[in-house]
Design a protein that fits this description.
Number of helices: 11
Strand order of the largest sheet: 2-10-9-8-5-3-4
Strand content: 15-25%
Oligomer: single chain
Shape: globular
Distance between the termini: 27 Å
Largest sheet: 7 strands, mixed
Bound molecules: pyridoxal-5'-phosphate
Radius of gyration: 20 Å
Number of strands: 14
Structural class: alpha/beta
Length: 363
Amino acid sequence: MSKNLYFTVGPAELYFTAEEHIKTALKEQIPSISHRSIAFQNIYRKAAGNLRELLSIPESYHILFLSSGTETWERILQNCVEETSCHLVNGSFSKRFAQTAEALNIKTEVFKAKHGECISPEDIILSNNAELIALTYNETSTGAMQPVKDIFELRKAFPDTLLAVDVVSAAPYIDFPIEQVDTLFFSVQKGIGLPAGLGIWIVNEKCLRKAEQKQEKGLSIGTYHSIPGLLENAVKYMTPETPNVLGIYLLGQVLEDMNRKGMKQIKQETNYKAAVLYQAIESCNYLKPFVSNKEFQSKTTIVAELTNGASSEKLHQYLKAKNMVVSTGYGDYKNQHIRIANFPTHSKEQVEMLADALLAFEV
Ligand SMILES: *Cc1c(COP(=O)(O)O)cnc(C)c1O
């Protein structure tokens, strides 16, 4: 059986060097080392250092490890919000961020955009109470990516409100300076190309202060994964719990490989491959980009709508016969859309091969 090439958005194709690093990790018995050892501290230090370099994360931001993107939604809300959060909702993931707040008895102010679009900062009017704005940079369910200028505008319009940005299906492709936001997060099974089970949470001092204020008022900020609890350990390159040591080790290795290539080249390649895919989709008589406004078209999650009565099942089968796997549409769009991941592990040649296959499919 030949290997599939996964263009799925998550879990995704592993980064092309991951297999070699997994083998080395097993040979070196990384999963069995103590998380209270110097060996582990060095693993944490390396992963955090390489991430800082790749994403140009300022020294004043802390890098913390959680278990998933979903967990991070909850931790941000528990630590950084007392009563009210504001949510920009334009698809299923941004909606779940808001629903997480509601489940924690937080009042939400929700601004909605149609699927495939993004909320314009001019349309956001906050009450005085909103403590945090939650924005999903890349809405994985629809393939809409918030233009970077909007993040600058939000920051300028609401300098005192914490700005939390979900970059789960974009990272490492982040086109805004980290300083523009107070906290951001992702998990590793998407653009980083590693096995699932590790979330990365980046926070600044404002987030820490907010959590401490909540704590001083006697309010709950959760237990082992609170910002102060995580930080107390992170300053020693440790974690409160037994963490995903293997995942953190692999992250450090893969990020080192990505740094060797450099963020500038990764971004250029991502832009090129996205252009190839959108062009193919526009040229097919049975597909069109779901996100019609080019300004909102995601570079990392390309979503195409099936037209002309094309069968999604046949298309998936056709691609599968060529050992290529793409994601179905999300939720209600399951049979109406396909979603294609454009991550750093996908080479130009692989993306061109997928584009050619899409062009050759007969409805
Ligand atoms: C996948 C995803 C999540 C959830 O991340 P998990 O690591 O699967 O919990 C959150 N937000 C976005 C935008 C996602 O694509």
